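During the second half of the funding period, the structural biology subgroup turned its attention to how the target accommodates small molecules. The most pressing case was zinc ion, which had performed well in the primary screen but for which no bound structure existed. We therefore specified the complex as follows and requested a full 3D prediction, including the ligand pose.
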Amino acid sequence: MTDISSAFSDTYAEAREKFIAAANEAQATITSYEQAEKGPNGERLFIDFATVGPDDAENAIIIVSGTHGVEAFCGAGIQVNILSNPDELAKYADTKIVFLHGHNPYGWAWLRRGNQDNIDLNRNYVDFSRRFGSNEAYSEVHKLMLPDDFDVSATNAIDSWVEEHGQAHFFTVALTGQRIDPNGIFYGGLEHAWATKTVSKALPTFVKNQKRVCLIDVHTGMGGYAGALILHAYEPGSTNSDRFNDWYEDKVTNEMEGVDTSEIEYDNSGAIATALDDLLPDHETLGVVIEYGVVDLRRTIDSLVADNWLHAKGDLGSDQAKAIKQENLDCLYGNTDDWKRKVWEHSSWMIESTAKGLRALCTKE
Ligand SMILES: [Zn+2]
């Protein structure tokens, strides 16, 4: 058993080693998929799955880390805290738990949000054979989001734009995702990324005997220091929305940084948590996102713009690059004992509440 903080890591390679060790200790079944690209130090990169729990369990919980690369330090620490703690695992003795470790291992190792092609995986789970959103309005801000140089005038320009057009409109055009500029931020891609294809194929094999599946995708970047935002895309009053309100004691939010999400127009779908009906058509599914905050959102957005600029137009070997990478990490990972403990306590409660909620659905039938 590991103490809470030491389940978290400082590099992708360290995190993977801890995950595999903890999964082996828990006698989990491990399945790994290696991607072609390597990390900045030549590290091999993998999407790893570990599964525990009875094969004939009626319910499954899938816990995802690293959909947004660098955000994985949080979710992976939570995963290792469960796998390495027999008392935690005992809470789920009747449930299949699937740990998806490093959804975007490239972005994680390189300390960035997107993958090797600058694709935001959480905009990529789209059925490209059907009509899909591209968010043409992104062209209003694409120059702001990818300036020629990244300096204080770049962030001032964003501030002025937000002041003029309002936060809700900024969220809509800049942050919901786009398929206009492959070098821009939150680019959703025009075809499925390697990770999307790999996960889409693998995931059903781990839950084939389960009736119900709840996927929890762990993110960081919103909610304030160690704050938690539980977000989902189900309509208010729908069965799954009511279930989440019930399970999570009405702590589900529809507000992000003072903006009511109903004011944000999502033209783009493509999040893994909203694609479950396509991924697992034979299951009853629920998908939810948990966001743990570190610093204020405005600073985080600047750091994402800076990092995106660095990969598109900057010099990865420069001192500025080091500073940008450190800032990205500081915005998306609260690397202190206090932050880790708070995040772990919340996620432990949330995952256990999920298992209880799913269990109650069995007995009702
Ligand atoms: Zn995220």
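Two results from this model are relevant to the next phase. The pocket of zinc ion is lined by residues 68, 71, 219, 221 (CB under 6 Å). The mean pLDDT is 94.
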